[in-house]
Amino acid sequence: MTFVHPSFGQIDDSRTIIFDTTLRDGEQSPGFSMNLEEKLRMAEALADLGVDVIEAGFPVASKGDFESVSEIARIVRGAVVCALARSGGRNDIQVAGEAIAHAERGRIHNFISTSPLHMKYKLRMEPETVLEIITEGNKAARNLTDDVEWSAEDGSRTEPDFLCRCVEAAIKAGATTINIPDTVGYATPEDMEKIFAMLKARVPGADSVIFSAHNHNDLGLGVANTLASLRGGARQIECTINGIGERAGNAALEEIVMAIRTRNDQYPYTNRIVTEKLLRLSRMLATITGFDVQPNKAIVGRNAFAHESGIHQDGILKNAATYEIMTPESVGWSKTSLVMGKHSGRAAFRDKLVALGYGEMADDRLNDAFARFKDLADRKKVVYDEDIVALVDDEARDHARIRFHGLEVSSGSKRPAEATLEIEVDGEMIEASATGNGPVDAAFHAIRSAFPHDARLALYSVGAVTEGTDAQARTTVRLEEDGRLVDGQGADADTVVSAVRAYLHALNKLLVKRTRAEPEALEA
């Protein structure tokens, strides 16, 4: 069966549309907020990955969200740029239409709750009122764009007969994509397959729209429910990089895509994702948000292709397929690590960045990253690919207000540690000194002295980028202020410097959150 979609033209039944909501649902997670430059970097990388639809944000939530969606729509090419709106919001749909006005291809995604629980306690509406809003909202959206998606919030807990009526109303009003989310992660794979099969069989006009699956991971079933939704007839997958999202997160893009690729005998579907770029996107997101991927995370965790057991190692050496169901290279891991050192020049460094997936880097960023690389190479005997990724991603951040310039620390067992810090704040150089219970504590006190603030340190975590005593440290710092949580990340061969970089990264993100209104909490 073939289908003509307003944004994708004629597509057949084997085609799956990849809808990424990292910048909307993912960014709503506590501590995961991004500034405009970070969102643009992610959006362009997602388009380069082959994502079909990028849900860029909820424009009516704040001026900052509107500007982010509008700028992504203006700049990003190769993917549909989608804006979220409430079906019954007073200005939501109009503002969403304005935000995507300059998109190469734009979509308005409107939603309203349909479950008895949500209608009674959240909306305080009768079912007939909800049906009227569905019709009005989708008609309004269709007047602004040909590509309209409608979502039944808490769809997996909606009564089947009423869900059919809602979907029929949305289709008649002009929706071209129908999303049935498992908003609270309650459903099982059997539930989701039955829901989509039922809708396709019972709803008039179901063969003229794309059905979409958006599954949360509260019971750890997000990916399984998404694959089951495909069996039931869904052909759009809503997911996020690293599975980030509200509460326990969303179905992970990288896991779904590789499940389809690896088990194409069970899931005979196609998509546009360039899987070799998955690891790069995962690492980019981890750097921007400050949240490392767990080591045992499927596909992109550092242990995903690691083998310590002697039996496993023996099997791998004889034939990799004995214990690996996909090749590391197929998702972006590299077999080559040790190729750069202190004698490597700028041209070799540039080539290495291209090989690692960074593409051509602007001269100023390249020069800054190269300077840090040479400094690292002077201090480390061995520079691994992971070291380069860590320092380049750390350097690439937009430290809009506060930039790190230097740190001197003295410490020992016989006296308090002392730290002297040099930072740039809004273009002004500031130096401050402080003592503390250890070098990190002293350095953090110095930051507070140089840039006074009331944020509380909620988390301090240090890990090694590679092995060995000369490994770079990757530090995560979480700050809390008035209920707002942000995470920062820093990398350096000096553990204290990495901690300071992480703290300043978090502090910069906190300053961004101070200047923008908090988006209304949303589900989908």
Notable features of this structure?
524 residues, three-stranded antiparallel sheet, alpha/beta, TIM Barrel, globular, eight-stranded parallel beta barrel, single chain, Double Stranded RNA Binding Domain
Explained architecture:
Helix 7 (189-202) packs parallel to helix 8 and helix 10 packs across helix 14 (385-395). The protein is α/β, with parallel strands linked by helices and 524 residues long. It is 38% helix and 21% strand. It has helices spanning 36-49, 63-75, 92-99, 116-123, 127-142, 160-172, 189-202, 222-232, 253-262, 278-289, 310-318, 346-355, 363-379, 385-395, 439-450, 495-514; strands at 2-5, 9-12, 17-20, 53-57, 80-86, 106-113, 148-153, 177-182, 210-215, 236-239, 402-410, 417-425, 428-436, 456-464, 473-481, 484-492. The strands form four sheets. Strands 3-4-5-6-7-8-9-10 form an eight-stranded parallel barrel, surrounded by eight helices. It has a three-stranded antiparallel β-sheet with strand order 11-12-13. The protein has a three-stranded antiparallel β-sheet with strand order 14-15-16. The chain folds into three domains: 13-274, Alpha-Beta Barrel (TIM Barrel), CATH 3.20.20.70; 332-395, no CATH class; 402-514, Double Stranded RNA Binding Domain (2-Layer Sandwich), CATH 3.30.160. It has 16 helices and 16 strands.
